[in-house]
## 1
Amino acid sequence: MSWNVRGLNAPNKRRLIKSQLDLMKCDVLLLQETKLSCQGADFLFSKWKLWNFCVSPSVEASGGLAFLWNDVSTEFKLVVSTPLWMWALSSLHGKTVVFGGDFNAISSDDEKIGGILPNKRILGDFSAFIHNNDLVDCKTLNGLFTWTNRRKDLSQIAERLDHFLVSAAWISSDMDVVASVLPYAGSDHFPIVLSILDDRAPGRSSFKFEPMWF
């Protein structure tokens, strides 16, 4: 699961995130914009039993990343993280890559409604990044937009800013890769979930992780 939580300093927000994590039974949690220092993140996540974690602290009052995985997640490694928004993960054999997070970018005009027209340069750069790295943008099955300004009618702006990008070779393999949007829960970004099933073992996920900083 990937989620721009817009801060984890409030106790009610922390309880909300933990309840979502328990409900979804995810193997991996990618959080953006935690707004936590290293000390604050260590204090919080050390209380979440059965979960391992590594963090990138906030820059003053913005940003901050947290990568959490459970004890059975052992087949992937963290290869890069940006200071504010995104995680990149790779399989141990190096052939499968997953980028997940708030990219603050759309890949086509139909991924935004309302507000000013999309920035064509940013749109083009993001689309080129996907194409040049042989990635597939996993479209969510149950809704397009992942961010909204929470307004209605003509004042509403909604965009698909959060993405899972996976290796094209993985999509064409025996893996069934499905992305979905979760209901609104305390942030202007909706959580998104990537579910990966191995067709050779129906009903069981093979999407597991090992932490490693490069």
## 2
Amino acid sequence: MARARTRSTREQPSSSIDSDAPPPPPLLTTASGNGANASASILPYSRSICSRRCKQSLLHEQRRSPRADSCFPSPHEHQFLAMAAAMWTELNTRFNQGNGPRIFELSESLITLHQGDDSVSPYFTKLKAIWNEIHELRPCTPCTCAAAADNLEFQNLEQVLQFLTGLNESYHAVRAQVLLIEPFPSISKVFSTIVQE
């Protein structure tokens, strides 16, 4: 009997790793065989990876056991979904610390950033990197109303003023000219005007 078991395990094909396949879902371990007191053991992934893996795991479980009465989850699926929901809540609480401190740090660096010994291009690149990071941390809500154009205009005005404020005094004359232009030019136009001087 032992030989039959050994033989059957040898005959099973070895699993190959497909590099294009999505990564496996997070590891779930249970304290007891029946699933009670389930706890999650997850390698330290970033929030976006964990979110994607949790969703993939849920979709995989849903596809794995299609049934005619699929609108009613089986006890196993119900337990799995409850564990996944509890895992997600714990991970969200643990890792979602907010972006306030980083946004404050970036805003502070915008205030203190000046051209100094840099030419205009590296100075502008530093500003642009900070603006982009702030935008990623605090994305604007998409808006299709008439106020959307006003919001973009205000954002452009803020960026132009930050750019002009940090320029060296040798750009005083061109700065004054730019501030007199009506309607107010885009940040790209202001940058090209300053670089041409």
## 3
Amino acid sequence: MSIPNPNFSHKSVAKSFTNSLMAENQLIDSLTSHISLYHSHSLSPNANRNPHPRSSILKWFSSLTIHQRQAHLTIIESKFTQLLIQMIGKLRTKGHGFFIILPDLPSRDPPYLPNLCYKKSRGLLSRVSESNETERWILECTRLFNSREGEKIDGCSCSTDCLDCVTVSEDFVGNMDRFVDTMDKVSKGEFLRGEETELGADWVEFDWLKAQGYYSIEAFVANRVEVALRLAWLNSNNGKKRGVKLKEKVNAAGVAANVYWRKKGCVDWWRNLDTAMRRKVLTTIFGKAAKSLFELFGEGNFKSSPDKSKDKPSACGRRKKGRTRSMKRQNPLPKSPVDEQSFDKRSKVP
């Protein structure tokens, strides 16, 4: 009769199997990431491969002014902006890593963003990412703002939940050679290559982004910048708009450009004001904000509760009150001139 080993239970077997499976998955993830890194650095882009519509778009884009380029690359999309904020939060709390989004599996809570998968980078992957100045420059040149900012003073908010627009800085599009070179490096030479077959989708991912598997936040932004550039080119050149969704996206690109110009007008107006006028504007804004806060919180604190005024005095309270009144009538005390004078002064106070 064999004696069972108490140290070799079913729970320990299941635990060791789970740990080995997790270690195997981590090894596979690390191996695929390193293969992707090697593939991206060893692949030389072919500049002559499928140049259309790249040459036409870049020729049109280079003919614009810097601010016109910023306007056409402005993205007004709340879900994309909020997802980008989530990515930034992950990087700040957990360190550098890579992402992949799952549009088919949205979150259960509003605004129903796609599920975001995060994988922390370690070792060689982390060192390569930290030394990649090109990708860091993309994120540094990204700007977020609220499309409805400034419409109402009462509606102003500093919460990141109100941010729904993304644009780029002047430095990002000021030099066309650097802009194209940056986008080529992030996309592995596939920037503006191929046809715009999926521009009408909600979450467009070009083939160069899908080939990376887990991608960086900079690649995610560059992918969306290319989408905005293609849509702006279709809107400005009356290109072929196949499908209802694509027409809606193209029209939204025009709206985003108008939002940028309105935002720029507000910023330019503020910069042109002198110090005295800025002080007056801020005083007016703070005064209205303080009035709103007082109406919101002050009235509730200073008003007495209506329940207390409606309470009826009890029988015991009535007897005590009557007893004190009778005592005051029986023993009246003469008032001094000083008391009368002070009472008269207090009664005249409004």
## 4
Amino acid sequence: MCWRCCWCLCCCCCDNSVTNDDIGPIYSQEPGCLEKGQQLTKTSGGHSVNMQTVNRLSTSRELQELKKTLPKMDAYIYCRPFIDFSQIAEHLFLTGYGGITNENIKYNSIKCIVSVTYETPVYAMDGISFIRVPVADNGKENMYKYFDELSDKIAELVDNNNNTNTVVHCLFGRSRSVTVVLAYLMKSQRLSLDKAFDLVKFNRPVIAVNPGYIRQLAQYERYLLGERLTKLDVIIAKNKRLVSAKELAAKYE
């Protein structure tokens, strides 16, 4: 499996040339999209969705051995800080694909895995539910259509006395998965995008959301709260990728 395109995105700096009213295309909710997304074989951009099913989680040692066999750019997925589990709320965690290990899932008592990727496999294991949001990290994908249904699903899991420990991941735990968690926080806690972003960044400093998804979240803020409270130039300045995946991983070597 090749991760190069996604890795390159994590090395790029965000476009900072936006105005407060520049939210790009207007998106809409699509009822039933989350259920449909579980069966999609291609993303809206034409990427083939990995439909491989795995029934066991790799151990941390197995992934570190795998890392040794990969080109360096691909191996960063299995490096800290991306594989770290970051607790965002009482029952909600963020990580990268390399963090989905047998040890992490058991230690954090995870009962639901939300994969915001098209590249990674389907997890089919007893006692753990699996949800996929098959999108690429290019910012042009319509993730907005998933915000309401997925936020409600996460709320059903972690709130309402269900207390189901849930982890959301993408490849690096920096962009796509963060977008989903931000949407959930904005809806469940009635937070502005700016406040939700600060909360997540405090608990996972390596986040760097694709600018296209920031714009979709800005539209969602207006949908939820009836007005735009977050200035795009401010949030994109906070979000700017000043450090690449390569540089971050080097700090932990």
